[in-house]
Specification:
By secondary structure, the chain is mainly β. The protein is built from no helices and 7 strands. It has one domain. The radius of gyration is 17 Å and the shape is extended. The protein starts with 20 loop residues before the first strand and ends with a strand.
Length: about 100
């Protein structure tokens, strides 16, 4: 049950969900991730489970061109990171 269904929305309490966050990635000479820094801890990549590219919104002022990686880390965690191919920055994608 929702109380006060006609109450005004409070913009200061809204936040975007699943926003990518900058992450430090160590890549090899071919550009594949070999380690990821999560918080203050460096985690070695045990395996690249998947890789895919997304090129979208090419007609806009800020098009999207990203190379995604699904990474199995040494501690058993799976994380998704991507490299922004336009700005050459790395980010972690939360789900």
């Amino acid at each position: 049950m929702v109380a006060h269904t006609r109450a005004a929305a409070r913009g200061h309490r809204l936040r975007p969900l699943n926003q990518p966050r900058p992450v430090q990635v160590e890549a090899d000479e071919s550009g594949e991730p070999r380690a990821v820094v999560l918080g203050r801890e460096r985690r070695v990549v045990a395996a690249v489970q998947d890789r895919w590219r997304i090129d979208d919104e090419w007609w806009r002022k800020r098009p999207v061109s990203r190379l995604y990686y699904s990474l199995l880390l040494e501690d058993g965690r799976v994380v998704t990171v991507y490299q922004d191919l336009i700005g050459l920055r790395w980010a972690r994608q939360a789900y």
